[in-house]
């Protein structure tokens, strides 16, 4: 008697249907053939479980091995989440193109009520797709992922702060600060602890070499041997050091960067040093010393309140051990005994975040410094939510960036309740924030620039072209242009535009530069690049959809503003690259104050 496919054992049919060449549509088609195959596809879940694992391998860590699960339901849910996330990302691109810093645009993602790990997996799927395509989709997917991860980290920080003070680990707190400021980096407490465990093992080996008879850590002289070995490994063998040359680099405050670059500032090095000492059996305490964070080590078995019963350790200064008097030499003046007291983990985190906040305020007013300022304010006010000074700074920052106007009003209301004397500043911001909310309800139509307009005939280049600066040599891509320089007279004088042969009365171009800056360059200073390459600027995806080997293709939003520029074809690009460009101009106009033309 002839046997058909359906006569095969269920296990064998499942094995056949789990072949990697079969996709979800194939399984659906097979299941529609007959009841027998339908039962095989859907009965025990093995077939759809295999499809799920093949399509979304990153999600396997959320399931236990051999876990019983309705895989078809999981597959459908994950598939629907993917569709919804893509639609949301695409809509955000269209609706928020004119915002320099995105804020309230991502709140709707949280309100979708979808499983967080599914949302993140789809965003990562978008980010890891074809490198040169879907640049705008990736640009906003990255920002959304940044936002979602920060929200989760903030929840973890709040839970951490709710623990009893004695259970709050300085290292865990420092890692949470690190993760919040670097949500796209792969930073975990377990990975940081593992690296510190490796250093601790090196110290133990060094201790055996230096002190073979070292029996225990009960005696202070024996603990001193541990500290000596720790300094030897950390500062001599591994070459850790304080970053005196680039002290105000925010990387110095991130614990994973301290371990990677082997340099930091007093507080970050102190957290690492204190954690290592604890792993080796020596208890150190953090000291909020002015201008130079320190650690202290009590020399009395039962503790003490006398500042002279402690040795103070300068982790920034290669673990040097100091007396109370010598600590004052570090800062050049005397301080009261209060400054030698041990502080809590919460106070340590406030100092660490305060450093980042000051670095953000010292920034150049670009998106990177604004982001650092936003992140550090979020962290500071999570730890100390009633600080009026920083609440007011946060409200002013959001107002300046034009984001979260409703949240600005909430912050101002909180400030007024905490300190009624701030009514003047609060009233001013309330009035202008309400005006901003009204303005957002009736946005102005975007300016459209046509190449064929009489006033634009001198414009030679199109958005999307890869250019090279004739004198400075930097590579860039054009994302906007003006028929004449639109900057004020102060900028024109500062940048010596009048020294150019054609001065300000020539086309000027907004360009994204390979080094991550945005500049405003005169036409006579630019020429098409002879060997076009991708421009590694973080804002490329905001304006362009893909890199087409010779130029960038504009996305829909930029195309509406420069509709005729988008028609640049490969042939036009090739002709431009073979045209002989005249040598002229010698000025480089850095766009440090030039507003984005889309604002």
Automatic annotation (TrEMBL):
Residues in F-box domain copies: 2-51
Pfam family, one: YccV-like
Organism lineage: Eukaryota, Metazoa, Chordata, Craniata, Vertebrata
InterPro entries for this protein: F-box-like_dom_sf (IPR036047), F-box_dom (IPR001810), Hemimethylated_DNA-bd_dom (IPR011722), Hemimethylated_DNA-bd_sf (IPR036623), SirB1_N (IPR032698)
SMART domains according to UniProt: YccV-like
Xref: SUPFAM superfamilies: F-box domain, YccV-like
Gene Ontology molecular function terms on file: DNA binding
Identification of the protein by name: F-box protein 21
Gene3D superfamilies the record matches: 1.20.1280.50, Hemimethylated DNA-binding domain
């Amino acid at each position: 008697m002839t046997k058909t496919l359906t006569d095969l054992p269920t296990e064998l049919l499942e094995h056949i249907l789990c072949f990697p060449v079969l996709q979800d549509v194939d399984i659906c088609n097979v299941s529609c053939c007959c009841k027998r195959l339908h039962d095989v596809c859907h009965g025990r879940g093995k077939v759809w479980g295999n499809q799920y694992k093949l399509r979304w391998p990153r999600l396997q860590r959320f399931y236990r091995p051999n876990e019983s699960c309705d895989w078809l339901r999981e597959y459908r849910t994950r598939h629907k989440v993917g569709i919804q996330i893509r639609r949301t990302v695409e809509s955000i691109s269209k609706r928020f193109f004119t915002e320099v810093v995105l804020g309230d645009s991502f709140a709707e993602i949280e309100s979708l009520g979808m499983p967080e790990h599914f949302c993140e997996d789809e965003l990562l799927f978008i980010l890891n797709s074809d490198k040169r395509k879907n640049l705008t989709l990736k640009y906003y997917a990255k920002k959304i992922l940044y936002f979602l991860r920060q929200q989760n980290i903030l929840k973890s920080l709040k839970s951490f702060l709710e623990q009893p003070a004695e259970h709050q680990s300085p290292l865990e707190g420092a890692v949470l600060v690190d993760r919040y400021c670097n949500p796209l980096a792969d930073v975990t407490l377990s990975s940081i602890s593992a690296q510190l465990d490796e250093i601790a093992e090196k110290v133990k080996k060094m201790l055996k070499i230096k002190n073979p008879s070292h029996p225990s850590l009960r005696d202070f002289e024996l603990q001193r041997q541990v500290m000596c070995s720790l300094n030897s490994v950390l500062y001599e063998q591994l070459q850790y050091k304080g970053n005196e040359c680039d002290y105000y680099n925010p990387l110095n405050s991130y614990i994973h960067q301290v371990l990677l670059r082997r340099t930091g500032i007093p507080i970050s090095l102190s957290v690492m040093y204190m954690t290592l000492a604890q792993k080796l059996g020596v208890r150190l305490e953090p000291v909020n010393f002015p201008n130079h964070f320190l650690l202290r080590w009590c020399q009395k078995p039962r503790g003490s309140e006398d500042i002279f019963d402690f040795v103070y350790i300068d982790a920034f200064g290669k673990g040097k051990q100091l007396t109370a008097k010598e600590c004052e030499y570090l800062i050049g003046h005397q301080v009261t005994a209060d400054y030698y007291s041990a502080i809590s983990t919460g106070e340590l985190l406030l100092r660490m975040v305060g450093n980042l906040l000051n670095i953000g305020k010292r920034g150049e007013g670009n998106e990177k410094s604004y982001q650092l300022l936003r992140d550090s304010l979020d962290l500071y006010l999570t730890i100390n939510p009633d600080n009026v000074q920083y609440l007011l700074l946060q409200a002013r920052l959001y107002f300046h960036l034009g984001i979260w106007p409703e949240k600005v009003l909430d912050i101002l209301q909180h400030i007024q309740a905490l300190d009624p004397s701030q009514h003047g500043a609060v009233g001013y911001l309330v009035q202008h924030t309400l005006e901003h909310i009204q303005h957002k309800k009736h946005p102005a139509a975007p300016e459209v620039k046509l190449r064929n307009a009489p006033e634009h005939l001198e414009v030679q280049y199109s958005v999307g072209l890869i250019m090279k600066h004739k004198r400075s040599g930097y590579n860039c891509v054009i994302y906007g242009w003006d028929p004449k320089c639109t900057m004020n007279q102060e900028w024109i004088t500062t940048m010596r535009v009048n020294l150019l042969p054609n001065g300000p009365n020539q086309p000027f171009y907004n360009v994204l530069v390979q080094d991550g800056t945005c500049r405003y360059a005169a036409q006579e200073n630019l020429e098409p690049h002879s060997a076009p390459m991708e421009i590694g600027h973080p804002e490329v995806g905001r304006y362009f959809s893909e890199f087409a080997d010779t130029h960038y293709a504009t996305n829909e939003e930029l195309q509406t503003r420069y509709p005729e520029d988008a028609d640049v074809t490969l042939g036009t690009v090739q002709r431009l690259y073979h045209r002989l460009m005249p040598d002229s101009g010698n000025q480089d106009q850095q766009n440090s104050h030039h507003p984005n033309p889309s604002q």
